[in-house]
Design brief:
Elements lengths: L10 H30 L29 H5 L14 H21 L17 H7 L2 H26 L5 H18 L8 H18 L5 H14 L1 H24 L10 H13 L1 H7 L4
Helix pairs in contact: 1-3, 1-5, 3-5, 5-6, 5-8, 5-10, 6-7, 6-8, 7-8, 7-9, 8-9, 9-10
Length: 289
Amino acid sequence: MSAGGASAVPIDVLSDATVAAMLCLLAANVGSFLNVVAYRVPRGLSVARGGSRCPACGNPVRWRDNVPVIGWLALRGRCRDCGVEIASRYALVEAAAGAIGAIAAVELLSGGRAWPAGRFGIGRTGVDVLFMEGDWRLALVCAAHAALLLTLLLWTLFEADRTRVTWGLMLGVMAALGAFTVVAGGPTVAAGWPAAAQAIAGAAAGFLLGTVVASPWVRQGLVFVGAVLGWQAVLAVGAIMAAVAVGRVGIAWFRGKRCRLEPTGIDLLVAAAVQVLAWRWIAAATWAG
């Protein structure tokens, strides 16, 4: 009992909450970097050199103003020096990336309970068990899924800005995700050759499904999904994406707005997140395992 008579918070809950908060913060910082990439790539600027600056006055952004979401809120969405408005998109992207960090935390701390079959989701939970048993494949698979979702978030930004993605960039990202998947393996396959075969088959399935989608960014995103999650998951993600698009258009229609019934990057990102979080149950209801 604590001095005030209340029960102390169990140490395992505190450790899990700390790890979850760290993953959310790390992912939110990656989201801040994705904002930089989305701004600089179309302009041919380096994403590795030079700090963030206000595009209006050119003054550097202070470190304290670069804290994801909080910095934007503290500035009330305006530059500290010239007062020009800073688009809310920057904070929204950071928040979305933080949510992806939360998804990674759920996967990691639940021991992959939502993944189909395999040796995951059989009772090992919490960060203490991870460290004691050294289940680093679990951590690698979670990292691969987070990398996929963050990539889809970046492609959503490219789509919003109508940024033309070169084949070199697209193939480079796909190769990096594929290599990560081969090293990490997946929920249903071991690392190495089984994971390589799954990545190749999945990328091919994503390419084929993408031929019926108008948006080139969504087509490329489906290839990424297949390379990381496998061909069965591509089919499930495609179905979920279509359902999300229908729901989005229905909400817009209800609000008196018109939009085309065409899957977007946001629809794909939401569908991939649903697949990762509910994989076991989707597989049980379909063939997406």
